Amino acid sequence: MIDPLGASLIAASSGLETQSQRMRIISQNLANANSTGKTPGADPYARKTVTFAEVVDVETGTRQAKVSKFGVDPSPFRVEFRPDHPAADQKGYVKFSNVNPIVEIADMQDTARIYEADLQVIKQTKQMFSMLADLIRR
User: Fold this and answer.
1) What pTM was computed for the model?
2) Could you tell me if 51 and 68 are in contact, meaning their C-beta atoms sit under 8 angstroms apart?
3) Handedness of CA 25, 58, 4, 2 (dihedral sign)
4) Phi, psi values for residue 104, rounded to 5°
């Protein structure tokens, strides 16, 4: 079993890692928000998702956040009538990615807030370790 301050560092560090992975997926989604298929009628980029799970480290007894799986959003692709577009099918319709930039921006803001909170936990824990060391030296 690890001390409570050490456990808080481990938990916050796992939070930083998971939110970093989430931000990577969000950035990929935003980069491909207006993508189409490479050939007429082909499916475009499908929005990626991240699922988290709580994992208990048996050595330290700490509860950590981990990415449990990466997935693909099953929502339908956006379809527009654009007969002159190179990705248009025989009927003139083009499939666009199912990424909604508004949802991605909201997810990005949520991710940033959680990341900042985890950084604050690490900062405060470091400060508490420093205070403890000062007490011990006296």
Assistant:
1) 0.86
2) yes
3) negative
4) -65, -40
